[in-house]
Design a protein that fits this description.
The protein is of the alpha/beta class. Helices cover 42% and strands 14% of the residues. The N and C termini lie far apart (57 Å). The protein binds nicotinamide-adenine-dinucleotide.
């Protein structure tokens, strides 16, 4: 099939590459000329494991193309996938300006029947708005389908190639058949393609992210309780997770959820509900707990250093909001860096992939209060403490003797529970983690 993917970010680039890999002819469109120029010269704008290799293969075999020419993309393709960003507006609702801009372009340039797929995460009712926007500009028959995306950054290719399920919201039989064909190569092991009405499909995405965020905040509250009552959250987690009704996934405590999806999607579903007169009490608490959790390590640091961080140097391992990505959107590390610097501290940070994003995020303090290091041990020189913010595999089994030797003090504040407290004790490292003695 001939597919145009509009918006070449984490979702669009992965979806486009995977659809091309399944044999389709795909053009990825973006308004960001710099991004498209880079892609056309063989440079991949994001870090996602496995993406580079798959992308190059499909470019070489002439199934995957990149352009800024939306007109040609709409004219030449039957399927148009909208994968642009839907960032939060000031009031928490999803900002649909990019989605509607694409709808306008589809309306302007449609030269026949098209299937327009909303893959961006959009509030209930957006498909109707997309339809209305397209209709303003064309008489052509256009089917608008909701097809939310569930991939996780860091494992995006695997998730896309082998999804747990594919959700299709449509009221058009022809579009349904086209969608089933498009996804057939990805569900060969029998994973379900669940076809439903458009509004339910739109809500399914928000409800899924909302329950995942809820699990995280719930476990963070339990971890904080563990500290108070002298229990160990890792034991509690294992005990809970072996119950099949609960399951072992997504119940790891930490320094709060971040990323480009959970924070904004929780906000957006709360806003949608409030527009319909419903107060989502659980989710408001989920947000509140998460905001609090993002500063939990600051409390531990302040208590250890008796609120005097002036002139202290902290090593930070991990900047990305989770491992295996270069994405720092809403990463807990951002607030931590600002809070530490606000109290007069200096930071020596290292992330295997996110240093580049940190450079533009922190231009005001870069190479002054914040120094970035390409190698993890280089960031330790003369530090008063090591702070772990992201659970990259490379941080799981470091040379603790070298850590002790290089740092001024042997202290670790671990926001991801990477190390064994008993072992730290034996190594004579002062060790503080989440929800453990
Ligand atoms: P992103 O910010 O990485 O990429 C969005 C891209 O769209 C950018 O390259 C931007 O230049 C481009 N764009 C904006 N307006 C455009 C227009 N009018 N025409 C063409 N291109 C345009 O965003 P993302 O992380 O890929 O997320 C995209 C959507 O998918 C969001 O709604 C998000 O909530 C959802 N989603 C994201 C993830 C994730 O893990 N990132 C997972 C599932 C769903």
């Amino acid at each position: 099939m001939k597919v145009a993917v509009v918006g070449t970010g984490y979702v669009g680039l992965v979806a486009g590459t995977c659809f091309a890999d399944a044999g389709n002819e795909v053009v990825c469109v973006d308004i960001d000329k710099d991004k498209i120029d880079k892609l056309n010269s063989g440079e991949i704008p994001i870090y996602e494991p496995g993406l580079e290799e798959m992308l190059r293969r499909n470019v070489k075999q002439e199934r995957l193309f990149f352009t800024t020419d939306i007109k040609a993309a709409v004219e030449n393709n039957l399927i148009i996938i909208i994968a642009v960003g839907t960032p939060p507006d000031e009031d928490g609702s999803a900002d649909l300006k990019h989605v509607l801009a694409v709808a306008r372009d589809v309306g302007k340039y449609a030269n026949g029947f098209k299937v327009v797929i909303d893959k961006s995460t959009v509030p209930v009712g957006t498909a109707d708005k997309v339809k209305a926007e397209i209709k303003k500009h064309t008489e052509q028959e256009i089917a608008v389908v909701s097809n939310p995306e569930f991939l996780k950054e860091g494992a995006a290719l695997e998730d896309f190639m082998k999804p747990d399920r594919v959700i299709i919201g449509t009221d058009n039989a022809e579009a349904e058949e086209i969608m089933r064909n498009l996804y057939a190569p990805f569900v060969r092991t029998g994973k379900p393609v669940i076809v439903m009405d458009i509004r339910s499909a739109e809500l399914t995405k928000y409800a899924s992210n909302a329950i995942l965020a809820t699990k995280i905040s719930f476990m963070n509250e339990m971890a904080n309780l563990c500290e108070k009552v002298g229990a160990n959250i890792e034991n509690v987690r294992r005990g809970m997770g072996s119950d099949r009704r609960i399951g072992p996934y997504f119940i790891f405590p930490g320094v709060g959820y971040g990323g480009s999806c959970f924070p904004k999607d929780v906000k957006a579903i709360i806003k949608t509900a409030s527009e319909y007169g419903q107060d989502l009490k659980i989710l408001r608490s989920v947000e509140e707990v998460n905001e609090r959790q993002k500063t939990i390590l600051m409390d531990k640091i302040n208590s250890y250093f008796k609120n005097d961080l002036q002139g202290k140097t902290f090593t930070m391992w991990g900047l990305a909001f989770k491992p295996n990505t270069d994405d720092m959107r809403e990463a807990p590390a951002i607030g931590m860096i600002r809070a530490l610097v606000g109290q007069g501290a200096k930071i020596q940070a290292h992330d295997p992939e996110a240093n580049k994003e940190a450079q533009w995020r922190f231009t005001d303090i870069l190479d002054k209060e914040l120094k970035l290091f390409n190698k993890r041990y280089d960031a330790l020189e003369n530090a008063d403490a090591l702070i772990i913010m992201t659970e990259w595999n490379a941080f799981r089994e470091p040379d603790f003797y070298l850590i002790k030797e290089t740092m001024k003090n042997a202290v670790i504040f671990d926001g991801r529970n990477l190390y064994n407290p008993e072992r730290m004790k034996k190594l004579e490292i002062d060790y503080y983690s989440i929800g453990r003695p």
